[in-house]
Amino acid sequence: MAERRVAVVGAGLAGLAAAVELANAGWEVEIFERSRLLGGRATSFHIDGLEVDNGQHVFLGCCTAFVQFVRDLGMADRLHVQDRFEALVFSRGSPPSRLRAALLPAPWHLVASFIGYRQLDWSAKWNVARALSRSRDLRRAGGTFAQWLGRNRQGKKALRAFWEPFFIPALNAPLDRVSAADAGFVVSTAFLESAGAARFGYATVPLAHIAAAAAHRATCVHLNSPVVGVAADAGSSGGAAIALARGERLRFDAIVIALPPPQLARLLGEPARFGLPGLSGYEPYPVVDVHLWHDRGGLGFDFAALLDSPVQWIFQKAHGYLCCSISAASDEVHRPAAELIAACWRELLAAIPALRGAQLVRGSVTRNPEATFVAKPGVERPGPRTAFANVVLAGSWTDTGWPDTMESAVRSGRAAAGVLEASHRGSNVA
């Protein structure tokens, strides 16, 4: 049997996950990436001799597809996952709180820790608990998450100390731009269904290393190779072709397109011809990370939340090195680096007692202007299929059942690969 050849357009996690699945199934896989970096929106690069991620990407214990993807690459030892959910929370003017899951089944595993949460008074705790007890209705509720919270009488205290610090980073969008259904998925999947689901995890190596391990499974990888056109023949046995910016036209048996909505729209020209709706119904939201090196050394935590601050989470990457993560960072993404560095350092000095008197050694800023894409109300996210059996979509923004996350990216890549495999088997049978 002749070897099947597939082009994967886009070397983000979605494209890489599809590439690995298809390579494992015996396809000859060629990856085409317009930039010089692998990993797409989850990559890393060097700043002043240090390799840093383009955003502090975390996953949760419920992100089973992403974890399995990394394990299948032989890099399980490069992931750190908490034994159980634990989060330190700092705020100005009060001692920090530590939220820690008990060894109990969900949702009772969080009750005792929540009762001792200093940043909420008893009235606000009761309101949050009451809303959580009704949260199974979220996935069927219409409107935005903010509207649902308003209907459930979540006041400023509850928003400040619970909903905003945990859910804006999880969804990378303001609560009034997130659908109630997407928020409901996060609440139920991460907090209510399993005691281990909300455990935080992160890669202990720069993300580009994971991307490189995945790309190594492909037959060939073409970096700095923008694809500017796609053509396909009707029928599952028809061919497909891509056009490169440098003038080449290459034919394949199938194509996986793993691009964000704006780039996908430009590539296809007429999305309707591929059976896709318009691709303008997605809002990009940025993430900004401020990297700070200081002279104090270790601070006694891996990561922590920061209330009443544009800095939502702080990650201790190494002794003397902190990464400040700012999600839904529309107000910060265009600020000068020097301003962001100075502002974040002031925020940390004011909230973290162990940093009092410390000196900032240097700082740097990484920006991801299109870190995630949120579908506007009424927009249906497409699945992997197009009007052509040999052209499929992948991408964290597509309809995987998950919000735009690394987990969604891997699931979309696997789904796209599965469609091509099923189509190929069907054409062979015919």
List the helices and strands and how they pair.
Elements: E1 5-9, H1 13-24, E2 28-32, E3 44-47, E4 50-53, E5 59-60, H2 64-72, E6 79-81, E7 86-91, E8 94-100, H3 111-115, H4 122-133, H5 145-151, H6 156-171, H7 180-192, E9 200-203, H8 207-215, E10 220-222, E11 227-232, E12 240-244, E13 249-252, E14 254-257, H9 261-268, E15 282-294, E16 303-306, E17 313-318, E18 321-326, H10 337-351, E19 360-375, E20 391-393, H11 406-429
Helix pairs in contact: 1-11, 2-11, 5-7
Structure, explained:
The mean pLDDT is 91. The protein has helices at 13-24, 64-72, 111-115, 122-133, 145-151, 156-171, 180-192, 207-215, 261-268, 337-351, 406-429, and strands spanning 5-9, 28-32, 44-47, 50-53, 59-60, 79-81, 86-91, 94-100, 200-203, 220-222, 227-232, 240-244, 249-252, 254-257, 282-294, 303-306, 313-318, 321-326, 360-375, 391-393. Helix content is 30%, strand content 26%. The protein has a seven-stranded mixed sheet, with helices on both faces. The chain has a five-stranded parallel sheet with strand order 10-2-1-14-20, with helices on one face. It contains eleven helices and 20 strands. The protein is α/β, with parallel strands linked by helices. It starts with a strand and ends with a helix.
Keywords for this entry:
5-stranded parallel β-sheet, alpha/beta, single chain, 7-stranded mixed β-sheet, 20 strands, 30% helix, 430 residues, 26% strand
Short description, anyone?
The protein has helices at 13-24, 64-72, 111-115, 122-133, 145-151, 156-171, 180-192, 207-215, 261-268, 337-351, 406-429; strands at 5-9, 28-32, 44-47, 50-53, 59-60, 79-81, 86-91, 94-100, 200-203, 220-222, 227-232, 240-244, 249-252, 254-257, 282-294, 303-306, 313-318, 321-326, 360-375, 391-393.
